[in-house]
Amino acid sequence: MSTPSRIGGDSDRYFMARRHSAIVLSMRFMSVALRPDNSSDRAMAAKIATVAEQERVRYLRLPANPWSQASRSHGIALNWLWRNLIRPGEPEAFGFLDHDLFPLAPDDPFAPLSSQDFFGVVRTAGPRWFLWAGFCMFRFDSVKHKPLDFGQDWFAGLDTGGGNWGVLYRHLDRDSLTAAPAVSCPYKPGIDANEGPLQWFASWVHEVGQMGRPELQADRRRALARILAPHLTAAQPRTVVFNPDFRGP
């Protein structure tokens, strides 16, 4: 399922929703795709719901979130989904994909679950580590009895998803886990990665929300749009026209 997030604001979320749904759905690695939405703006939420309907994605308007801070709001939304939807539904596997994360080649991020209990992008803070909440997949039977917490643990230096360190990740040897490769690079030549980053997880590209210099965000968005353009074209449904007079070569 796509993860809800307030990073970049509600207008950015609409831009991302249109592109994320089209490309991710074209990969067809999910039996059920859901777009949870915790937008703070009702009009924008209505637009996102329309996108979901156009792309034939199940849409879920989440309850009002008490937090406006992006990462904390994100974690609370994921915990609501875990407790109220995923855990009662008991799927074979489930995962979260950030709204500004896009696959640029066929991929099945659930495939590694055939040999391990979870998979995703690993982030570290000293001796602790966790799967980033924007790209993480889990075998349900391996976590169904655990009190999962997809929130933060800032006292331990852990961002969204790090709340699972104590109940899940600390019990596993990090070196035994196959994780998604992660590389950060500048979106254009002549700047440092921390000024205008894009993150690459193998064939997936992540816009990285509001990280970087604010005055470069619009230009980075245009660069990302150019990267996505051919994939959006390829993801569009094609119309086959029947010609009754065609007799073959």
Fold blueprint:
Layout: H1 9-27, E1 34-37, H2 42-54, E2 58-61, H3 70-89, E3 93-97, E4 101-103, E5 118-125, E6 128-139, H4 140-143, E7 183-186, E8 197-201, E9 204-206, H5 217-235
Parallel strand pairs: 1-2
Antiparallel strand pairs: 3-6, 4-9, 5-6, 7-8, 8-9
Helix pairs in contact: 1-2, 1-5
CATH hierarchy, class of one domain: Alpha Beta
**Shape type:** globular
Mean pLDDT: 81
Number of helices: 5
**Spatial gap, N to C terminus:** 45 Å
Specify the biggest β-sheet.
Answer: 4 strands, antiparallel
Structural class: alpha+beta
Q: Strand order of the main beta sheet, please?
A: 4-9-8-7
Poorly predicted regions are 3-11, 238-244
Keywords:
249 residues, globular, four-stranded antiparallel beta sheet, single chain, Spore Coat Polysaccharide Biosynthesis Protein SpsA, Chain A, alpha+beta, 19% strand, 9 strands, 5 helices, three-stranded antiparallel beta sheet, disordered N terminus
